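Quick review question:
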């Protein structure tokens, strides 16, 4: 039966399942606050633990998969994604298990995303250019958005709200794991080269370090603030729907981020260097909307804030990847992409930072402070992009 499914689709569905597990925790932040009485700083730190597992796995897996094969990497990581959800279920009674489950989900995600994207691209050979990358992006984005949307609804209105959302992910994994288990291998054997020639020089060069390092964390930082922090600002006004609203905000923000990416590619092709500062200004607009939400407690502002911050995520991500493409040689692009992605996932700690700062300064002040930082970052990125482009010409 599994042989009837196209090989690329088997891998794409595996990425969908792992992506689902990666983001299903987003609405659960409010669930644990409301139902278990955990502090906001505690649950947002659990959210950030995902990045602690993902970043090292992301940097290592892309290279290791060329040695042992994509399938040899994805098989155990599919199992680890299942174990992560089982650990999160155990977190109903043991708070430490929530931290462990999030860390495990991060490792599984980091180890699947890069090799999985390469595998889908290789299995799409013969299709029009860009088809493989587009298929992988759609699979991941569908999992990223579907996981929190379903988890939010189940945690809000279903029985056993700290168990049922994770059972949905386990069901998805039961379906998709057998599909990828026998997918045809495409990776050739290569010698492990952790730092291809010229990669480290590019990473520490002015265009890469001075532009991508400050804007990178705002990729997922913007998105996470939109679906973790902003909905919590009106939690007292959304009794009965707060958890579902957080899940909806995640799906909306990530969806708008994906939808904007083709337009950003066209814009960058005509005006190189414009996407990063514009994306940072969109993040500013989202944070100002978040500040207004905190000041007025208007529930209707949650969706616009999530959409603006999600659009910023998509714009800065696409602009950053196209910047990498301009800077990298063919033998360094994979590593430079992985490093950039690692920087972007640092942004998952932003909701925790916001929660800690809110205890001292208040939510309006924290949102406004973030807006100031994004404006300054936009100005810096615009100046550095002009300097880099002038120098390259």
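Suggested answer, residue by residue:
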């Amino acid at each position: 039966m599994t042989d009837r499914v196209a090989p690329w689709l088997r891998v794409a569905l595996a990425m969908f399942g792992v992506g689902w597990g990666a983001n299903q925790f987003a609405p659960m932040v409010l669930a644990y606050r409301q139902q278990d009485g955990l502090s906001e700083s505690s649950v947002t730190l659990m959210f950030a633990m995902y990045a602690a597992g993902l970043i090292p796995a992301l940097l290592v897996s892309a290279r290791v998969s060329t040695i042992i094969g994509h399938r040899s990497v994805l098989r155990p990581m599919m199992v680890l994604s299942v174990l992560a959800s089982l650990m999160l279920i155990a977190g109903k009674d043991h708070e430490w298990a929530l931290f462990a489950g999030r860390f495990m989900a991060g490792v599984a995600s980091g180890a699947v995303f890069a090799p999985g994207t390469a595998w889908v691209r290789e299995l799409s050979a013969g299709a029009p250019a860009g088809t493989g990358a587009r298929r992988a992006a759609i699979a991941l984005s569908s999992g990223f958005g579907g996981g929190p949307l379903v988890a939010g609804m189940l945690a809000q209105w279903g029985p056993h709200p700290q168990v049922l959302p994770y059972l949905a992910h386990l069901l998805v994994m039961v379906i998709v794991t057998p599909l990828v288990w026998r997918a045809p291998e495409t990776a050739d054997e290569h010698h492990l080269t952790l730092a291809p020639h010229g990669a480290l020089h590019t990473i520490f060069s002015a265009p890469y370090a001075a532009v991508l390092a400050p804007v990178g964390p705002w990729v997922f930082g913007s998105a996470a603030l939109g679906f973790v922090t902003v909905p919590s600002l009106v939690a007292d006004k959304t009794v009965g729907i707060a958890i579902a609203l957080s899940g909806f905000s995640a799906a909306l923000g990530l969806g708008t981020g994906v939808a904007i990416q083709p337009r950003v590619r066209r814009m960058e092709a005509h005006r190189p260097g414009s996407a990063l500062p514009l994306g940072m200004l969109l993040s500013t607009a989202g944070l100002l909307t978040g500040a207004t939400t905190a000041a007025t407690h208007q529930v209707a502002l949650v969706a616009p804030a999530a959409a603006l911050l999600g659009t910023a995520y998509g714009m800065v991500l696409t602009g950053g990847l196209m910047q990498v493409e301009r800077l990298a040689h063919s033998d360094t692009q994979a590593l430079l992409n992985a490093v950039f992605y690692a920087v972007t996932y640092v942004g998952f700690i932003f909701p925790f930072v916001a929660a800690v700062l809110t205890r001292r300064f208040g939510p309006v002040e924290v949102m406004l402070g973030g807006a100031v930082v994004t404006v300054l970052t936009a100005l810096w990125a615009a100046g550095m992009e002009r300097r880099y482009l002038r120098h390259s010409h």
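Why it works: The domain at 198-393 is CATH 1.20.1250.20 (Growth Hormone; Chain: A;). DSSP finds 17 helices and no strands in the chain.
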